[in-house]
């Protein structure tokens, strides 16, 4: 089968998106400017500073779900003001480009592997983040092993960045195969990701973030046991969230905590805080109009 990797890097690029069949808006959009929303998410964010690096993972659920979704997402990003956002489930290149065009001072990367309609992407705040290696897919060869682990359409999206505080990070954005019956596929993906880091990035500050589609606290058959067993080198920055109250979990409709952030030991001392952003508590339309997943944010400082 022919391999295809379609990657685009966008900086303030505008394109047409949407269509006449889009569902009607469900958000309280501003009637004087339909491209905006009056919702306020400030009470549901984690405020950072120019000295700290804030990274978000966000399954944005078939973005965009409606004609008003992008306006709400734009407001969320402006209110949250992180430095990097790793996105999963982007369905429209044009809508992503439109969103990026509305984000002043941001750049982005979007990939489409083998014709997938659930794309991975990144957004970077240019004033604090420099992309030092353009986004590209890991395990892009279309082998039976890779297709089994990551599906035929979804490969981890790798990039490297430098923050103004001096932190240099390697980021791996993932969206693992969902649902019961796919445990072996997620386990294989976990093995391949760890092997890649151990072999190619042994001394790098690495962050693996995204929709893991499984519990990291599963005591009976944990598909991420290979990372957990190597506690000297790997740690889930989200482990306390996953093992804590379900009110803080990232997937409230199940409920479960499946959106996670894994870090290597080079970052153990750099983590300030990791938190689920409960945006649905600031918007009664968030879960239906934006995503059934909540974003998860991690704040980092450079300690050495």
In summary, what is this structure?
With 304 residues, the chain is of the alpha+beta class.
Topology:
Layout (H helix, E strand, L loop, with lengths): L4 E7 L17 E2 L2 E5 L15 E11 L5 H12 L3 E7 L2 H10 L3 E8 L5 E7 L3 E9 L6 H7 L6 E7 L4 E8 L7 H18 L4 E7 L13 H5 L4 E3 L2 H4 L16 E6 L6 E6 L9 H4 L6 E5 L4
Parallel strand pairs: 4-5, 10-11
Antiparallel strand pairs: 1-6, 2-3, 4-15, 5-7, 6-7, 8-9, 9-10, 11-13, 12-13, 14-15
Describe this structure in words.
This protein is of the alpha+beta class. It has one domain: Deoxyribonuclease I, Chain A. 20% of the residues lie in helices and 32% in strands. The chain is built from seven helices and 15 strands. α3 packs across α4. The longest helix has 18 residues.
Query: What's the name of the CATH homologous superfamily?
Result: Endonuclease/exonuclease/phosphatase
Biggest sheet, in brief? Answer: 7 strands, mixed
Order of helices and strands: EEEEHEHEEEHEEHEHEHEEHE
Radius of gyration from CA coordinates? 18 Å
Task: Output the CATH topology.
Answer: Deoxyribonuclease I, Chain A
Q: Residue-averaged pLDDT, rounded?
A: 88
Number of helices: 7
CATH architecture, by name, is 4-Layer Sandwich
Shape: globular
């Amino acid at each position: 089968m022919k391999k295809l990797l379609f990657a685009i890097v966008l900086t303030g690029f505008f394109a047409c998106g949407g269509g006449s069949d889009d569902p009607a808006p469900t958000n309280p959009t501003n009637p004087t400017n339909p491209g905006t929303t009056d919702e306020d998410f400030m009470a549901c964010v984690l405020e950072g500073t120019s000295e700290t690096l804030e990274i978000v993972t966000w399954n944005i659920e078939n973005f965009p779900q409606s004609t008003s979704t992008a306006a709400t997402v734009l407001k969320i990003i402006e209110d949250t003001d992180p430095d990097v956002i790793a996105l999963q489930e982007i369905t429209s290149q044009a809508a992503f480009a439109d969103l990026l065009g509305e984000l002043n001072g941001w750049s982005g990367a979007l990939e489409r592997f083998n014709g997938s309609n659930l794309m991975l992407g990144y957004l970077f705040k240019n004033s604090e983040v420099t992309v030092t290696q353009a986004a590209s897919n890991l395990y892009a060869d279309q082998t039976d092993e890779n297709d089994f682990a990551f599906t035929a359409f979804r490969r981890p999206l790798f990039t490297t960045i430098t923050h103004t505080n001096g932190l240099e990070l390697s980021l791996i954005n993932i969206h693992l195969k969902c649902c019961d019956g796919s445990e072996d596929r997620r386990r294989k993906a976990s093995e391949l990701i760890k092997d890649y880091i151990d072999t190619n990035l042994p001394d790098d500050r690495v962050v693996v973030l995204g929709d893991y589609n499984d519990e990291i606290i599963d005591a009976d058959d944990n598909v991420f046991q290979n990372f957990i067993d190597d506690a000297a080198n790997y740690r889930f920055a989200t482990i306390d969230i996953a093992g804590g109250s379900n009110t803080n979990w990232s997937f409230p409709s199940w409920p479960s905590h499946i959106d996670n952030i894994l870090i290597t030991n080079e970052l153990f001392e750099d983590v300030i805080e990791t938190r689920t952003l409960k945006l649905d508590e600031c918007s009664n339309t968030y879960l239906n109009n934006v995503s059934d997943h909540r974003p998860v944010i991690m704040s980092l400082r450079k300690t050495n």
